[in-house]
Design goal:
homodimer; about 550 residues; 7-stranded mixed beta sheet; 5-stranded parallel beta sheet
């Protein structure tokens, strides 16, 4: 071995050692499911120092109107259609587009070295990628803001540390699953009185190329766990961002390629497959036999198509559903109203955990409805609060959701608009595409079709219903349309005890009686399981053993000892 | 709680305690992968006492020409087409046939209690089932003999303890995967300076009904792991045996229903779905939305159909492939020839691990070919040995495989028959359907089509080929046609080192230089992984975490502490 190879081995060993404590802590956290993170999700300069915010903003601005060159193979053109929801102007960033076949060939060519690498090294490299992304998180926050429309604080936390934590969580499970396989064994037993001794070797073998298809509104949150789960288990990854939200993922891929190269691996283990709305490339990648794992986050329409058509390869999906709140009884109206209003206002309800339907017991309906509307108004009428919570509307499509709902209501009787959707004036970005929630009051039993369909945008239905009926209907919707987060408020423990098995049976994760400072739709990595896989909201859980255990396979050999 | 409920709880607790040490030993064994079993796979009366063999035979004989009534719901008729390969006479056993819809409804009705049961209890019940099946193993041996054609000793061991061990192995993984999920946690962190404390509960929820489709030649070996994996994780199971090999599975279902009833559960958690060759019922069950898990063992044809069409549910398959032996060089000819001859003679090559193609280096070809033929002759010409090793030919289909091969050979030049297939005279059963292996010599490069197709029966191709080319072709066949067991003989460690990565890349489990008392195609539960999932021989591995981890899902609820 020459000197440079030795130095590389030493650097690799040092990398494993450097991240070892973090990995063990993550493994401990997914076991205890207590609160833990190696990151801070506050952008405070007390934590990060005075220079990082400005440097991050400058790094983002330096990207604008340039070509984001990743040095990938097989470039056949350039694309780039991103428009900032805060300025409504194009970012002007051009992304070289690689021929999908070139990316696949490069991934396959890179696979053998990656397969042969110690999985602890692969995990350490993913941890290094995570740490560097955390280091660049102010830049990432601006990137996410200006493609997705998230507020600065949400982009910083939710698309930064909270998302990276989901990635580390996947690494913890990958480590557990792979460490569970003994690398070798000696087997001795007698056959027909004759002693036999065999040395056995068990080799972890990846499946093939992993394809990660990202959503537009929260691109990093699902990308990290999927990418890290596939990479850790030895599979090269091609990341296909949504054509209107490429920049954050391009930064991620850039960091991956930089770290891989630095530690002597082929950067083509992680590549970016860009496309346009007019000429999507996802299906071509999905159909290629070299792709053996598909992770998809996005619309129920395309996710459902994949779920109905993909065979012979692993498919992990997270789509969306109809999230419900059932308010049976409350000790105090305002804290509950505030909790629901804040969750419905966060990122203008463009989240997979946003509530869409709030069932309220008849005796509470008028008071609670008025309080919820009042709490939404309190946010919407304070531009600084609105900017921090609601952010911007990512695309025209979410505006259309509101328009279509408004049109559907106009034709109906027995449906009342309690609060009109209207823009708020963003204090920093006068041209921001904003919209505060439309709030609609409905009698249960009528108009179920109006609120039973997922409406991905700032629309909230308040439904007057007996709580028992409400739980039944909510869980029917969960089973038929999917649900990622369900919420229940009741002061009656018997009612809660009767209701919880129904939520379990529908595979609906449930938050009970939560008010106060924590967002009720906040899902904590290492502690909260996200998506059950038991209803149409997706088949993958972030994160459990099932999310990683089948991404690698085991090949054995055995021979007589000695 | 009344007295009988208390007694039931006590009996259930005692059951968990009774099987606890066995479960922990199984968990330890799958970790170390050393040799272990709670069973003995020898039928010796020194182990089992003098009475069991006769009682088992009598129990089997008492079944003949009767109706095997399991007390299942929705009976719509009776079927039964089993013919003993040893007597070539019908067994005359009639099986009440239940309407598939009635079995599904009953399974769904039984699910909630099973879901609610402690998973340690579900595992203990499966262990109890295994122990009772072991207790009835002499009866089972006769049942397997007279539907599958296995010899008495193979039926006793391979379809008894060795199969039960695969079931316990699956239970060990199920325990590991479910214990990995914390049942509850307390989560505390500050949000915006406000301390938040949440109690979180994580509930394991089964997917739905598990369907287990069994093969005809080795019905119990794959049934136990699939049944136990689904049952342990909370899923009711419908077992669909092959119409010509129902009896062993009917006995299994009988024991399951007896144990479930005894411990206060609905027997319809395990039911038998019987059908006929003319009117198969599998697809109707596969297509039903209540079935959420399908375990299939059988032909590549139907297995491939399932792999190409089943979406939205879990599918585990084991089909078959073209198993190869590559003989590059040997220290001694005879031990290798004997090892290959025995593996090719065992159960007349009606096993998924039977070698089909033996590549022999040109300088060794004549000597090794003659030695292999000689060793097969030595078995075939000794009726007692032949009876113990080769058993009988299960069905006409395996006779046709030989006929078709013989016909294909007649039309070709450059292919020589080294040994004709011919019956041997079974010492106990003069009417037994027997056939000893056809051995064919072939030049590599020509006639690949002849031996590249799986031929499920006593046909062995000896192919003259340079070992390097042989490995390449063998692994191409593994990738294209599937392989469950591959074998390599070489005294050249450099050659072995160069070859092993090729086997790994093709997902081919490899046995190197094995001779002596152990059958080279013996796969030991807890130690040998069976099927890699990386080639067309199936997608499921017996057993790893992936075999169990996605059979259950996790549903959580959380609420403020206190």
């Amino acid at each position: 071995m020459d000197g440079s190879a030795t130095r590389l081995d030493e650097r690799r060993a040092a990398l494993i050692a450097r991240h070892s404590a973090t990995l063990e802590s993550a493994i401990r956290a997914v076991g205890t499911r207590e609160s833990w993170s190696p990151f801070s999700d506050s952008p405070s300069t007390k934590i990060h120092g005075p220079d990082k915010p400005g440097a991050g903003k400058a790094a983002f601005e330096a990207r604008l109107a340039t070509t984001f060159d990743l040095g990938q193979p097989g470039v056949i053109g350039e694309v780039g259609e991103e428009v900032s929801p805060f300025t409504q102007k194009p970012l002007g960033i051009r992304y070289p587009q690689s021929d999908p076949d070139a990316l696949l060939s490069a991934a396959v060519a890179a696979l053998p070295d990656w397969r042969a690498a110690d999985f602890e090294l692969r995990i350490a490299l993913c941890l290094e990628i995570a740490m560097r992304l955390y280091d660049r998180n102010f830049e990432m926050a601006h990137a996410v803001m200006h493609v997705a429309g998230q507020s600065y604080t949400q982009a910083f936390s939710g698309s930064g540390p909270n998302a990276l934590d989901r990635g580390l969580e996947a690494l913890a499970y990958a480590a557990k699953a792979m460490r569970d396989v003994a690398p070798s064994a000696t087997y001795t037993r007698a056959f027909a009185g004759e002693p036999v001794a065999l040395d056995k070797t068990y080799v972890l073998v990846p499946r093939g190329v992993g394809l990660v298809i990202c959503c537009a509104s929260f691109p990093t949150w699902n990308a990290y766990p999927a990418m890290f789960a596939s990479l850790a288990t030895g599979n090269p990854v091609i990341v296909k961002p949504h054509p209107i939200a490429i920049l954050p993922i391009a930064i991620v891929v850039e960091v991956c390629r930089e770290v891989l190269t630095e530690f002597g691996f082929d950067p083509n283990l992680v590549t970016l497959a860009v496309d346009t709305l007019a000429e999507p490339v996802a299906q071509r990648l999905v159909d290629d036999p070299r792709v053996q794992i598909v992770d998809f986050t996005g619309s129920p329409r395309y996710g459902g198509h994949l779920e109905r058509t993909v065979t012979g390869k692993l498919l992990f999906t997270e789509t969306a559903g109809v999230n419900t709140v059932v308010i049976e009884s409350v000790a105090e109206v305002e804290p509950v109203a505030r909790a629901v209003a804040r969750a419905s206002s966060l990122f203008s309800a463009q989240m997979c955990t946003s509530p869409q339907v709030v069932y309220i017991a008849p005796d509470l309906f008028d008071t609670m409805s008025a309080a919820i509307v009042g709490q939404i108004d309190a946010i919407a009428d304070d531009p600084a609060q609105a900017a921090g919570i609601m952010g911007a509307i990512q695309g025209e499509v979410s505006l259309r959701v509101v328009e279509e709902t408004r049109a559907a209501i106009r034709e109906r009787s027995g449906v009342r608009v309690l609060r009109e959707a209207r823009p708020y004036a963003h204090p920093q970005f006068p041209d921001a595409r904003t919209l505060t929630p439309l709030v609609v009051a409905v009698e249960r039993g009528e108009h179920v079709d109006l609120y039973a369909e997922e409406r991905f945008g700032p629309v909230l239905f308040l439904v007057k219903a007996e709580a028992g009926d409400a739980v039944m209907e909510a869980m029917r919707l969960a089973r038929e349309r999917g649900s990622i987060s369900s919420y229940l408020y009741s002061t009656d423990e018997d009612f809660i005890d009767r209701a919880t098995p129904l939520y379990e049976a529908a595979g609906a994760n449930l938050t009970i009686n939560l008010t106060g400072a924590m967002w009720i739709n906040f899902a904590a990595a290492y502690s909260d399981y996200h998506v059950t896989g038991l209803n149409p909201a997706g088949n993958a859980c972030l994160a459990d053993l099932a999310f990683v255990a089948s991404r690698f396979r085991i090949v054995q050999r055995r021979r007589p000892t000695g």
